[in-house]
Amino acid sequence: MVKENPVKKKIKEGKLVLGSYCNPQRSHMVELMAEAGYDFVVLDTEHGPYFGVESCVDAVKTAQAVNIIPFIRVSHNNPILIEKALEIGACGVWVPHVDSREECEQAVKAAKFPPIGDRRGGGVAPKDWEYANEQTIVAVLPLESKKAIENIGDTLSVQGIDLVSLSTGDITFALGHPGQPMHPEVVKVRDKVLELCQRKGLVAYAVGSPELLQYYYQRGVRVFMSETNLRKAFQDHVKELRTMLS
Fold first, then answer.
1. Strand ranges (DSSP E) for the chain?
2. Across residues 91-98, what is the average pLDDT?
């Protein structure tokens, strides 16, 4: 049975929505993120050694048990990977390297049932397809290369996109300013994409430093992914203890 996706509901209502990436093999982190108050978690199979969506099964089940919405970032814009990610229980997919209209159409078609796409049943009855399409989130990352930036207008014309990444890292390499997400030239391109999303009625999300998140909150963005740094959290805690007990 297809269930309501509260993250999509909050997005439609313009409410603040918070999420974070997570290693798919660390189900305990999914539980911690739920307890911390995140709305969703994105299990990342693109980066690191876990390329198969099968590595996400336990984390998806954990997310369902602790009431945090699970999404999967597939390693490639591949219809089979996208279908499998949704069939194991993810409420949507994050699709990387969407460089053109054609690649965006491919992602949407793989994630949505007819008549929007050509996703196959996978345990979802035809009578539930329309509702499943409404609840499934397709997030695209269309700013990871020069080609993608050049094609952004056509790419964002595709029907069925739910979220658009404003990019943090790859866009800086594409524009020749690696590791500088707030460089004026990077911000200029990102801002143009945000304006394009707003004109087309699309929802953009931002991920990155507190400075970047605050910048885009002021410009109307309400969906954010934070960079969880446990090492720094532990370091700050130990530093605080040493100061207090010295």
1. 17-22, 40-44, 69-73, 92-95, 137-140, 163-165, 204-208, 223-226
2. 96
| Beta-sheet pairing, 223-226 with 40-44 | unpaired
Cα–Cα distance, 46 to 24 (Å, whole number): 10
**Interval 115-143 mean pLDDT:** 90
Q: Confirm if 38 and 68 have CB atoms less than 8 A apart.
A: yes
Phi-psi map region of 236: left, alpha, beta (phi>0 left; psi -120 to 50 alpha): alpha
pLDDT at 171: 94
Looking at the predicted structure, is the pLDDT value of residue 1 above 70? no
Amino acid occupying residue 210: P
> Residue 174, Cα to own-chain centre: how many angstroms?
20
List pLDDT tens digits, range 144-195: 999 999 999 999 999 999 999 999 899 999 999 999 999 999 999 999 999 9
Assign domain 6-245 one CATH number from 3.20.20.60, 3.40.30.10, 3.40.50.300, 2.40.37.10: 3.20.20.60
CA 227 to chain centre: 13
Q: Summarize the confidence of residues 86-115 as an average pLDDT.
A: 96
Per DSSP, the three-state class of 33 is helix
Q: Tokens 């969880």 sit at which residue?
A: 228
Residue where the block lists tokens 């990342």: 44
Both tokens assigned to 175: 């524009």
Strands 17-22 and 40-44: parallel
Which residues lie across from 47 on neighbouring strands? none
